Every structure is written in structure tokens, then in C-alpha cells.
């Protein structure tokens, strides 16, 4: 690989996932002259963004009661508005870039089914509280009882009703259509420099360096020269150094690598997806429905495997294949930043579970079309971290290091607007009006709700 010329850029963005792309897009659109380089360790979107389950959905309904307890109803309502507004913006962006067909975006209802009475009751209470605190959200969710579910099921599946022996309780549909964005994980993208529609609108201001892992970041402002006073940070990569004025970490589950002080506050979490072909055994509902199956977290002391409480699936409207994910794995396999292999137990588990939900006899397996794993970023309080990194976190002087990370498996509902909100902070415009204050990175959050002990407790299997 040829050494890179020494670049001088206003902004280095580390990570080319949806968050890095959002930050780049906002900077290009809102700053008249900013020069930007995106550094990506592998290929474009090779992190969680290119490996996810494709559900453009929010989890704020089931989380509302918890959010209101932790942050008060006003902030909880702001989080609900933020996530649904973000989903709306995602759709607009896909339309703006004429990518509806390419992305296979569909407007769907999401059918959430609850496998125990308790989890269903908890969900109902959460929705009731959301509607009472914020009447404008009434009608977002429709609660179905078992009988209606059967009718809806019969209507939607013919004889292929979601099995009520498995779905012991009821389900709710989210009234507002939730689009589903189906995709295969990114294949390798060869070129190490690429342009994008955004960059062609702003020629010469954006470069994207793929296959270029950032190995370290230094601040050289103690040696005052004309260069270090404007570009105090050195980004070290195998292709050579670059000097930049600001560093923006969009590294999500990998953030602890370059910022060790964040380890424990944010942790990686490995997720696995399968694509399964049901053949002719169920009709294709890919244009109408996606599904979530909720159950209380489980722990099996014999296998040491934990079930994390959710299976999610969508169906390709084109092929009828199911895109099915959900974790049931050992904690040491889940808390991992290594997506170079797919956990075979995870795949076997997903293959054994899915056909049962659609009424197939136990032991049935559908053809595995594809499977992959990806790394998410999780935080103990379940909320993203957006803001300026302090010197105590970076170990460096300077005020030019920023982060947007920890989307807790719900990037589609958060990343786009979090990237834009971070740009408001970077440009000195203060907090974006949409951004919930609870997402902002603060010392007190790090010491309290994001303390390592809280992360351990959140990960500890509850029996
Ligand atoms: C299996 C799975 C299923 C999911 N399903 C859904 C879903 O259905 N709906 C939903 O909303 N969300 C889902 N998610 C989560 C969603 O994909 C993420 O929240 C979102 O993609 C995060 O985007 P990001 O840009 O912040 O991070 P990423 O896409 O992970 O991007 C970070 C990038 O940083 C790069 N990087 C890291 N360190 C360095 C370095 N030192 N130098 C250079 N580059 C570096 C990485 O290579 C990576 O490309 C899923 C995730 C997984 C793994």
C-alpha cells in the first residue's frame, strides 16, 4: 500500500457507518468550506451498518416507562419524538437519493408478539403511560387481544397463523407504518478512495480512505508551529500521518480501541443475523409486516447461554426470505468486537427457532441462505453518547475530539439525527433542538448511569 501524502484537513471522521456518513453530510451541507477525510479500517459500511437486520423501527414504546422513571416524562417524550422523527428523516433521505428500490425500503406494520403474560403486561403499561403523558402519541400502537390476533393472523397468513402455542399472549401492531430496509451485508468495495453523491455535490472537500485503520491520535499543540496551531491532531494510519483540526469518532462498538477510558462505559455486543428460505411453507408478507417476538431474558446454567429477550424479523418482498436475528449466546461470545466469524451456535439456534414461530413442527429447519455477525455499541443506560470528549477521557489536551456512539442496537432510529446534532455542537451552535439532553455525554452520566458497574449489572443474566 503506497504511503499517504501528509493531509491537512479540518475534520477527520473515524468510521464510515451510518453515523460517520451523517456527520460528513451535515458538515458538508452546513459548513461552507470544511475539508473532511473519513478513515475506515475496512470497506465502506463494513461495521454494524452493513451487517444489520434492516428494521427501521424504534423501541421507545416498550422502553417508555423505564425512560420516564429514569429521566422524567418530558425527557422520555423527547426521546420518543427524536426516534420517530429520525425514522421519518431516514425515509426522506432514501427518497432524496432515489434509493427506494436499491434499499428495498417497504412501509410496514410491525407485529410485536409477547411470549409471556408478564412481558405483555409490562408493554401495555408502558404504552398506557406514554399515551397518558403524551396524548399526541395516542394511536401509535394498537393493542390486540388473543382473539383479534387470531383474526388478524388468519387474515394475514391464511392458515399460517403465528402459532398461539408459542405466542401465548397477545400482540400489538404499531399503527404508524414502520418501514423495513432490507439488505445483504456489504460486499468488499475495492477502491481505497471513493466519492459519494454528497461528495460530488461538494467537490474536493471530502475524501474517504478505506482500508485505513486509525492506529493512534496525538495532539501536538504543545509544539506551537503555524501547522500545529491550526491542525493540532495527528492521525496515524498505515498509509501515513494526517494532520487535522478536529477528530470525530463514529466508531460505535469499537470506540474503546482508540479511547481506552471509554471501555466499560460503552461495550461491544456481537449480534448475528440469518437469512432463511421458508420455501412454500408460508406466504410472502414482506410488503405488509415485520415481526418482533418478545420474551423475558433467560439464562441456562448448563450451557451458560443467555437469551436477550428479543427476536426480530422481516421478509424480503422480492424473495420471501426471512431476515431473522436475536441473541441466545454465552456472554463471552456476545461481549466481543470480533465479527470475523459467525457463532455457529447462534446460527443453529436461529434456524431452530424461526420455523416454530410459523407453526412448523419442532425440529423443522428452513434452508439457510446466508448468515453474518456484526458489532453493536451498547451503553449501561441504553442511550447513545453524543458530545465532546473531555481531556480526562482522551488523555490529551485540546477541545477538538467528538463522539457519536452507542446506539444499543437501534441505529436506524438514532444515528442520522445524532450525527447531525453532533455537528451542531462541533460548529458551536449548541445543542440541537431535537437532541434529547439524556443522550449528551457528561461527567455525571459517566460516573453514574454509565459506570462500569452499571454495565456489568445490565449484562448479568437475571433469573
Ligand atoms: C446483527 C445486527 C443487527 C442489527 N439490526 C438492526 C436493526 O434491525 N435495526 C436497527 O436500527 N439497528 C440494527 N442494528 C444496529 C445498527 O446496525 C447500528 O446501530 C448502526 O449501524 C451503527 O452505525 P455506526 O455508524 O454508529 O457504527 P458502525 O456501522 O459499526 O460503524 C463504525 C465503523 O468504524 C470503523 N472503525 C472502528 N475503529 C476504527 C479505526 N480505528 N479506524 C478506522 N475505522 C474504524 C468500523 O470498521 C466501522 O465501519 C443491528 C446491528 C447488528 C450487528
Automatic annotation (TrEMBL):
Cellular component (GO) terms are: cytoplasm
Matching entries from InterPro entries are given as: FAD-dep_OxRdtase, FAD/NAD-bd_sf
Biased composition of type Low complexity is found at 194-203
What the entry lists under Pfam families is as follows: DAO
Segment Disordered: which positions? Answer: 173-216
Q: Where is the composition biased (Polar residues)?
A: 204-216
**Start and end residues of each FAD dependent oxidoreductase domain:** 10-134, 207-424
Spell out the protein name for this chain: FAD dependent oxidoreductase
Organism, scientific name: Penicillium chermesinum
Species classification: Eukaryota, Fungi, Dikarya, Ascomycota, Pezizomycotina
Amino acid at each position: 500500500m503506497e504511503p499517504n501524502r501528509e493531509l491537512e484537513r479540518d475534520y477527520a471522521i473515524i468510521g464510515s457507518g451510518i453515523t460517520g456518513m451523517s456527520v460528513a453530510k451535515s458538515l458538508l451541507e452546513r459548513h461552507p468550506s470544511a475539508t473532511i477525510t473519513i478513515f475506515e479500517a475496512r470497506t465502506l459500511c463494513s461495521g454494524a451498518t452493513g451487517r444489520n437486520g434492516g428494521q427501521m423501527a424504534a423501541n421507545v414504546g416498550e422502553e417508555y416507562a423505564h425512560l420516564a422513571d429514569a429521566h422524567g416524562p418530558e425527557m422520555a417524550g423527547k426521546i420518543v419524538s427524536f426516534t420517530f422523527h429520525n425514522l421519518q428523516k431516514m425515509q426522506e433521505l432514501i427518497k432524496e437519493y432515489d434509493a427506494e428500490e436499491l434499499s428495498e425500503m417497504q412501509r410496514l406494520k410491525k407485529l410485536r408478539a409477547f411470549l409471556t403474560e408478564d412481558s405483555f403486561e409490562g408493554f401495555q403499561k408502558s404504552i398506557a403511560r406514554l399515551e397518558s403523558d403524551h396524548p399526541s402519541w395516542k394511536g401509535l400502537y394498537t393493542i390486540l387481544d388473543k382473539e383479534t390476533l387470531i383474526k388478524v393472523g388468519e387474515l394475514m397468513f391464511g392458515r399460517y397463523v403465528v402459532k398461539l402455542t408459542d405466542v401465548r399472549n397477545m400482540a400489538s401492531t404499531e399503527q404508524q407504518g414502520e418501514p423495513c430496509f432490507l439488505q445483504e451485508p456489504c460486499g468488499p468495495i475495492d477502491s481505497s478512495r471513493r466519492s459519494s453523491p454528497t461528495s460530488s455535490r461538494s467537490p474536493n472537500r471530502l475524501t474517504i480512505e478505506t482500508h485505513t485503520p486509525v492506529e493512534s491520535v496525538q495532539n501536538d499543540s504543545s509544539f506551537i508551529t503555524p501547522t500545529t496551531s491550526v491542525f493540532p491532531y495527528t492521525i496515524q494510519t498505515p498509509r501515513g500521518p494526517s494532520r487535522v483540526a478536529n477528530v470525530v469518532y463514529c466508531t460505535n462498538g469499537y470506540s474503546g480501541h482508540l479511547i481506552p477510558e471509554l471501555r466499560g462505559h460503552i461495550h461491544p455486543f456481537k449480534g448475528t443475523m440469518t437469512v432463511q428460505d421458508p420455501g412454500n411453507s408460508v406466504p410472502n408478507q414482506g410488503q405488509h409486516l415485520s415481526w418482533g417476538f418478545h420474551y423475558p431474558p433467560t439464562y441456562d446454567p448448563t450451557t451458560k447461554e443467555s437469551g436477550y429477550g428479543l427476536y426480530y424479523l422481516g421478509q424480503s418482498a422480492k424473495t420471501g426470505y426471512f431476515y431473522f436475528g436475536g441473541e441466545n449466546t454465552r456472554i463471552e461470545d456476545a461481549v466481543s468486537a470480533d465479527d470475523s466469524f459467525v457463532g455457529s451456535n447462534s446460527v443453529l439456534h436461529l434456524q431452530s427457532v424461526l420455523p416454530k414461530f410459523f407453526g412448523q413442527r419442532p425440529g423443522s429447519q428452513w434452508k439457510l441462505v446466508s448468515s453474518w455477525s456484526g458489532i453493536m455499541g451498547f451503553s449501561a443506560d441504553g442511550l447513545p453518547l453524543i458530545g465532546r470528549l473531555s481531556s480526562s477521557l482522551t488523555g490529551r489536551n485540546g477541545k477538538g475530539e467528538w463522539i457519536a456512539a452507542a446506539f444499543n442496537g437501534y441505529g436506524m432510529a438514532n444515528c442520522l439525527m445524532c450525527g447531525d446534532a453532533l455537528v451542531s455542537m462541533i460548529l458551536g451552535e449548541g445543542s440541537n433542538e431535537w437532541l434529547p439532553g439524556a443522550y449528551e455525554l457528561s461527567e455525571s452520566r459517566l460516573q453514574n448511569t454509565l459506570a462500569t458497574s452499571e454495565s456489568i449489572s445490565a449484562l448479568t443474566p437475571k433469573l
